[in-house]
Specification:
Helix content: 55-70%
Number of domains: 2
Structural class: mainly alpha
Strand content: under 5%
Number of strands: 0
Order of helices and strands: HHH
Number of helices: 3
Radius of gyration: 22 Å
Shape: flat
Distance between the termini: 56 Å
């Protein structure tokens, strides 16, 4: 039985160097997030409060995505762009 080389598992033939670079970027992001959490904790936020905010943001994003999907379907039915529907529903383009 032949064991495939590690290169055969790399997505899209990505090089080892590119993967190492991606690992380093992820480590930097992890460090930045740890620093941000430490700062929030030093400002008096609790982990439970942060978890609750994160949970609420996820819920908000899911609801917003559903609303965008509905607007898109309505726009297709009416033969207009989603952007054209925003004034009708008192929405800002940044919404």
């Amino acid at each position: 039985m032949r064991i495939p080389s590690p290169k055969s598992f790399q997505p899209n033939g990505a090089s080892e160097e590119a993967l190492q670079c991606e690992i380093e970027e992820l480590k930097q992001k992890d460090l930045a997030l740890d620093q941000e959490i430490a700062q929030l904790l030093s400002e008096g936020y609790s982990l439970e409060e942060l978890d609750k905010h994160i949970s609420l943001l996820h819920e908000y994003n899911e609801i917003k995505d559903a609303g965008q999907m509905l607007l898109g379907k309505l726009a297709v039915i009416r033969g207009v762009t989603t952007k054209q529907l925003y004034p009708e529903y008192d929405l800002e383009l940044s919404d």
